[in-house]
């Protein structure tokens, strides 16, 4: 694992100013956050630094103001929610550099917390302008990045600051990087990957990276239909990218050469319309899908066989649902496989790492989100990591 500095590498920080990049881009309704998971994630880092006597300045983005001040996108909107989670009052500072920030630092006592305004109000943030990063860095003694979800962006506050100040991974970032290393960096083998979702086109790079790294590739969701079509299966009116069948065949060939087994469903749940509990719903072999039917989930026999595959594995990476899980009963395969993975994890035989928006929702729906080894709430960053890409925000932290 590439070494990066963590909070354990910090000396005495009393009276020092910590610039801490966090993700406070919270979903809002009527002026307050509907979900504070992201604040909960960074709470340990913020409180640890405050308890050690640092003056903690929080850097975050909120929405997409495109380099201009926007009255509805100030981070002051989330101040109350952050205070509630931290159990501490924080000072709002309507700038990210300059005399106002300087004065505010003078007012803050050791162990106090300040929240700077939306870094994306300044065009230098998304442009990763070195002068802008230098301006922010002038106020800090060290930099902590605890926003893995923004690590795939090379912005001034996620990447640029690390070039101007001693840089450390916060506790949430550290946990994420350790989990990801255990899943694909240096995993216990055999490794299985579950990749689901609607389209092959959005996960091409993921699939091509995984076939060289895992022993079992389990494909579900709408993308499985494209692979079935590539194998000559008539998928009826299922969601399918027929123009990508050559690509699907190429990926299966690559898997063959790499010694990776690709698992496609051999029984499926079909219906003539996509609705909850439709009367036309039935389970059939993949070769028996009628022209007016669509595949909406993986069948029970295939799910049982996939559960048996997981029992032989030591590591699991999961991204994307197995079927149209938002609509019952097409959530059955996702729920059953997730429960098997959770049970194996709890039994100690499997290290399970999952990530991506739909995946988190599916695991929560199956009531096993807390039973996986690690569930990443990062969407784009998790996907780019699964594609084998270097994340700028992570690379900048390497010691």
TrEMBL record:
Reactions accelerated catalytically: (2R)-3-phosphoglycerate + ATP = (2R)-3-phospho-glyceroyl phosphate + ADP
Residues that coordinate or bind ATP: 203, 326, 356-359
Coiled coil: none
Keywords linked to the UniProt accession: ATP-binding, Cytoplasm, Glycolysis, Kinase, Nucleotide-binding, Transferase
Pfam families (alphabetical): PGK
Gene3D superfamilies linked to this entry: Phosphoglycerate kinase, N-terminal domain
Binding site for substrate: 23-25, 38, 61-64, 120, 153
Assigned EC number: 2.7.2.3
Protein localization: Cytoplasm
Domain of life: Bacteria
Pathway note: Carbohydrate degradation; glycolysis; pyruvate from D-glyceraldehyde 3-phosphate: step 2/5
Entries under InterPro entries matching the protein: Phosphoglycerate_kinase, Phosphoglycerate_kinase_N, Phosphoglycerate_kinase_sf
Signal peptide: none
PANTHER family for this protein: PHOSPHOGLYCERATE KINASE, PHOSPHOGLYCERATE KINASE 1, CHLOROPLASTIC-RELATED
Similarity remark: Belongs to the phosphoglycerate kinase family.
The protein's name: Phosphoglycerate kinase
Protein's organism: Qipengyuania polymorpha
Gene assigned in the entry: pgk
């Amino acid at each position: 694992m590439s070494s990066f500095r963590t909070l354990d590498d910090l000396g005495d920080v009393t009276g020092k100013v910590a610039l801490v990049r966090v993700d406070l881009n919270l979903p809002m309704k009527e002026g307050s956050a509907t979900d504070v998971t992201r604040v909960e994630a960074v709470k340990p880092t913020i409180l640890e630094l405050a308890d050690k006597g640092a003056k903690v300045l929080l850097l975050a983005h909120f929405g997409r103001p495109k380099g201009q001040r926007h009255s509805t996108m100030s981070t002051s909107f989330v101040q109350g929610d952050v205070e509630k989670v931290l159990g501490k009052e924080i000072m709002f500072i309507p700038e990210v550099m300059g005399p106002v920030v300087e004065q505010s630092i003078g007012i803050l006592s050791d162990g106090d917390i300040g929240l700077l305004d939306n870094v994306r109000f300044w065009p230098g943030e998304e442009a990763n302008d070195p002068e802008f990063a230098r301006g922010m860095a002038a106020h800090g003694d060290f930099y902590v990045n605890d926003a893995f979800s923004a690590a795939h962006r090379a912005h001034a506050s996620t990447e640029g600051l690390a070039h101007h100040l001693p840089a450390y991974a916060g506790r949430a970032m550290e946990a994420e990087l350790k989990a990801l290393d255990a899943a694909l960096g240096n995993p216990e083998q055999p490794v299985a990957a579950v990749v689901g979702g609607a389209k092959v086109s959005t996960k091409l790079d993921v699939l091509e990276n995984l076939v060289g790294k895992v022993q079992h590739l389990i494909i579900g969701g709408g993308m499985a239909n494209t692979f079935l079509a590539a194998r000559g299966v008539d998928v009826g009116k299922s969601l399918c990218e027929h123009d990508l069948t050559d690509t699907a065949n190429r990926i299966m060939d690559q898997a063959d050469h790499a010694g990776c087994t690709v698992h496609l469903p051999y029984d499926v749940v079909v219906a003539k319309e996509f609705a909850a509990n439709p009367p036309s719903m039935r389970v059939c072999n993949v070769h028996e899908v009628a022209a007016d039917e669509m595949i909406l989930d993986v069948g029970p026999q295939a799910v049982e066989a996939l559960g048996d595959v997981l029992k032989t594995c030591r590591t699991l990476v999961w991204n994307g649902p197995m079927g149209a899980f938002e609509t019952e009963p097409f959530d059955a395969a996702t729920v059953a496989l997730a429960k098997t993975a959770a049970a194996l994890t709890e039994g100690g035989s499997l290290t399970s790492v999952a990530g991506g928006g739909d995946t988190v929702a599916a695991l929560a729906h199956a009531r096993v989100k807390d039973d996986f080894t690690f569930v990443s709430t990062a969407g784009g960053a998790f996907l780019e990591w699964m594609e084998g890409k270097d994340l700028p925000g992570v690379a900048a932290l390497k010691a």
